[in-house]
Every structure is written in C-alpha cells, then in structure tokens.
Amino acid sequence: ANSALLAAHTQPNGFWHIATDWAPYTAQILNVLSASPQWAGGVIARPEDRPFTRFENTALRAGRAITDLYYIRTG
After folding, report:
1. Secondary structure of 53-71 in the HEC alphabet?
2. pTM higher than the cut 0.85
3. Model confidence over 27-43: pLDDT tens digits?
C-alpha cells in the first residue's frame, strides 16, 4: 500500500535516493520497496557527489553507519 502510494506520486523512471543511519528504517524500506513490482533498486555505495549533511556528520561522529538506498519507479 505505501509503495503504491509512493509510486502514484513519482513519475515513471523517477527515483528516490534515501540515506539513513537508522537500521530499522533501512530494513523497512528494503522490505516494502523490494517487494513491489513498481520499484527496482536497493542499497548502493555512497555517491561521491552527495554532500554530507549535518545529520549525517552527527551520526558518523556517534559511530553509526550510513546506508544509501536508491529505487527507480519501473511501472
């Protein structure tokens, strides 16, 4: 349901790039979007051109890992 709602508001070939330091959020995104035929993608390496945010720097200083996820709307 959530993946369909997200797809309804994203153009075909549109994408979502999400970076998070919260493991339960990462797991939820992977579970929901990976199970949907409207989305293709998953965990990616941190893009070199993505700037570090204040939140990311805080998480890194606290020793938390950052996970980047990238999904493209396919259908």
Report:
1. CHHHHHHHHCCCCCEEEEE
2. yes
3. 999 999 999 999 999 99
Contact between 17 and 69 under an 8 Å Cβ cutoff? The reply is yes
- 40 exposed, middle or buried (CB, 10 Å; 0-12, 13-18, 19+)? middle
Please, are residues 72 and 40 in contact by the beta-carbon 8 Å criterion? yes
The per-residue pLDDT for 75 is 73
| Collapsed DSSP state (helix, strand, coil) of residue 7 | helix
Residue with tokens 């965990």: 43
Q: From start to end of the chain, where are the E strands?
A: 15-20, 39-44, 67-73
CATH assignment of the domain containing 50: 3.40.50.150
Total domain count, the chain: 1
| Domain, as residue range, for 66 | 2-73
Q: What is the CA radius of gyration of the chain?
A: 13
